[in-house]
Amino acid sequence: MLTTLTLSEAAARLRAGDLSSQELTDACLTRLAALEPTLHAFITPTPELARAAARAADARLTAWRRDPAQPLPPLTGLPLAIKDVLCLAGTRTTAGSRILENFIAPYTATAVQRVLDAGGVIVGKTNCDEFAMGSSTENSAYGVTRNPWNPARVPGGSSGGSAAAVAAGLCLGALGTDTGGSVRQPAALCGVAGLKTSYGRVSRYGLIAYGSSLDSIGPLARSVADVALLFAVIAGHDPRDATTWPDPVPALAPWPADLAGVRVGVPREYFLPGMQPEVEQAVRAAIATLADLGAQVVPITLPHTEYALPVYYLIAPAEASANLARFDGVRYGPRAEADALWDVYEATRGARFGAEVKRRIMLGTYALSAGYHDAYYGQAQKVRTLIKADFDNAFQQVDLIACPVAPTTAFPIGAKTDDPLAMYLEDVFTLPPSLAGICGLAVPCGFDAAGLPIGLQLLGPALGEAQILRAGQAYEQATAWHRQRPHL
Amino acid sequence: MTLSLAEIEHIAALARLRLTDAEKARYREQLSAVLDYMARLRQVDTTHIAPTAAMLPLQTVLRRDEVQPSLSPAELLANAPAADGDTFRVPPVLE
Questions:
Q1: Which of A430, A431, A428, A426 is nearest to A409 (CA)?
Q2: Residue B95: its pLDDT value, please?
C-alpha cells in the first residue's frame, strides 16, 4: 500500500519513476477522505494545493530523470502535513482556536517555506490543542482527534493531529511543535518517531507563539531516517528569527549500525512508582537493546526532575499570558462588538478562548502579578537554572540519555479533561528537557497489553540532534516496532 | 490556599477576560489546587541561583539597517474585523 511507505522509500520510487507524486498524493488524499470521519486529524485539508504541488513535482521529476545533473530537492513530491499553528500564506491558520477561525495567514512560516522549497506536497493543516496547550488534542475548538490504534483513545497532544495523520497513513510525515512535550508525547502515543529540536535550532518565524522561551518546531514520521530527512530541511539559522542558533547544521548519516563507544545515561528519577508497568518494562528492554548494540549504559541522576512540572506550568502560562494579549478582536479574528474598546477586548477574549487557554492565561497572569511575581515566576526561573544544570552535569558523563516519553500509553478520551493536574502529569518526562532547551527523540519501543504503542525517549544536549538520531536509528534497525501499523 | 472570588475577578480583569459566574467558580477551585501544587517550589533553596530568562547565549542580534520588502497595509488589514483606509477601526478609546 502506497500510504505505508516511509519518506525514504517513497523518494526512491519517485526518483526511479515507478511511482508518480500524483499517484502517491492521491492515495493519501483518498485515505484522508475515508478516515477523517473517524480520526479527525485535520482542521483544514488542502487537497487542491496538494494536487497542484504534486503535478509540479512530477514535472520536476521527469526533467530530472532526463538530466540527473540537475538538483532535485530532497522532499520532491512527498505528501506531508503541517500543524495548524504554523502559517501557510493564503490558507486558514487557526491554532485550534475560535479566536482565529477566519484567519488567513498573510505569510508563510520559515519552516513551512523550507518544506515547500524542498519540494514537499502539503496535504493539510492538522488538528491540535488550542494554541498548542494540552496533552491530548481534546482542547481543540474543532473537535478531538482520535488515536488510529484505538479511536476511543486520545492521540496525545498538542500535535495530536500530526501524529495521528502520520500513524494512519494520511501523509508520510508532518511538522509539529513541542513546548513541553507536544511532538514527543503524541509521537509515542501514536507509535511514530518524533523529534523535539533544540531550542533555537529551527526558525519560529510564522509560528503562533505559546511559550517563547520553550517553543520549538519538529518533525514526525514513520522512521528515524525520515525524521532526520525533515530535520535537515527545516533546521538552521534564519535572519527573521533572532532566537535561532547561527551554528551550521552538521551532516546527518551515514551512521554506523552499532553504538560502540556511546555512553547512555539512565536517570533514576524517570522511573516512577505510579507509571504504567508495561511502559517501564518496554523502556528497560529498549535500554538493554541499546547495550546489546554496544552502548555503555550508565546510571545517572537528574535531582531536580520533580520540580519541572511546577516550573513549566508557571513559566509557560506566564509567557502565554503575554503572547496571547495580541488576540483582542482588533487586528484579526471575529470581534464581539461593544461600545467601548475595553469591553471589546474582554468580550472577544471571554467568548473566543477555550477553557484551557483561559485557565493558563489566568494562571500566568497571577504568576506575573504584583506581589506574586517573585514567589512564583521568579522562583520558577531560578529552579529552571537548576534543572538545566542537572542536564549540563549529566552530559559531562554521558552522550545521551534514555528514558520513557510518557508515564502511560494513550488514555481514553475524556478521562482527564476535568482534572488539569492529572493532564499536566502526562508531561512529567518531557518537561525537564524542554526547560533545559535540549533535544529529544521519541521512538516506538513496544506495545501494552491493549495494543497501544509505547515510546522510548532519547535526549541529547543542545544542538546534539545527530547523536540522538544516530542512536534512534540504530535502535530502530535492531527492532521492528516502527513497522507495525494500526488496523483501520 | 484558596483564592478568593475577588482575586479571581482581579486576575480576569488584568487578563482582559470576561468570565461567567460558573467559570469564576471553576477557575477559583482549579487554580487554587494548581497553586497548592506549585508551592513545592518553595522547598528549593535558590539563594545564590540566577534566574534563567533567555535560553540562548546570543545577545542583541542586529541586522543591517536596510529597507526590506514587507507586507502591504491591505494584506495586513485583510484579517481585521473592521478597517478604515489604512487603519484598524475600533470603538472610542476615550469617553
A1: A426
A2: 67
CB of A277 closer than 8 Å to CB of A284: no
Name B40's Cβ contacts closer than 8 Å, sequence gap at least 6.
Answer: A306, A307, A310
Q: Strand ranges (DSSP E) for A162-268?
A: 173-178, 193-196, 216-221, 263-267
ipTM of this model? 0.96
The answer to whether A140 is a known catalytic residue is: no
- CA nearest to A145, candidates A96, A99, A103: A96
Angle at A415 between CA A413 and CA A416, to 5 degrees: 110
State which residues of chain A have pLDDT below 50: none
The CA distance from A441 to A70, in Å, is 34
In 3D space, the residue among A361, A307, A305, A407 whose CA is nearest the CA of residue A133 turns out to be A361
Sheet of strand A263-267: strand arrangement: A42-45, A121-126, A79-83, A173-178, A216-221, A193-196, A439-447, A453-460, A400-404, A263-267, A296-300
pLDDT of residue A204: 98
Is there a catalytic annotation at residue A382? no
What are the grid coordinates assigned to A271, written together?
Answer: 522511573
* Cβ–Cβ < 8 Å for B28, B2: yes
CB contact under 8 A, B71 and A107: yes
CA A135 from centroid of its chain's CA atoms: 11
pLDDT at B94 exceeding the cut of 80: no
Instruction: Look up A203 and say whether it is catalytic.
Output: no
Spell out which residues of chain B touch residue A243, defining contact as CB-CB under 8 Å: 55-56, 58
Residue B44 has its nearest CB partner, among A307, A332, A363, at A307
User: Cβ of B41 and A311 within 8 Å?
Assistant: yes
- CB proximity B17 to A under 8 Å: yes
In three-state secondary structure terms, A296 is strand
The reported pTM is: 0.97
Give the span between the Cα atoms of B28 and B33, in whole angstroms: 9
B50 Cβ under 8 Å from any chain A Cβ: yes
E runs forming strands in A276-372: 296-300
Q: What is the residue type of A175?
A: L
Task: Identify which of A104, A330, A386 has the shortest CB distance to residue B49.
Answer: A386
DSSP string of B7-53, one letter each residue: HHHHHHHHTT----HHHHHHHHHHHHHHHHHHGGGGGS--TTPPP--
Question: Rounded to an integer, what is the distance from CA A181 to the centroid of its chain?
Answer: 7
| Omega within 30 of 0 (cis) for the link into A162 | no
Taking only the tens place, the pLDDT of each residue in A288-337 is 999 999 999 999 999 999 999 999 999 999 999 999 999 999 999 899 98
Q: Is the pLDDT of residue B87 over 90?
A: yes
Q: What angle do CA A96, B28, A372 make, to 5 degrees?
A: 95
Q: How confident is the model over B22-48, as pLDDT tens digits?
A: 999 999 999 999 999 999 999 999 999
Grid cell, residue A95, equals 491554532
Q: Parallel, antiparallel, or unpaired for β A193-196 and B87-88?
A: unpaired
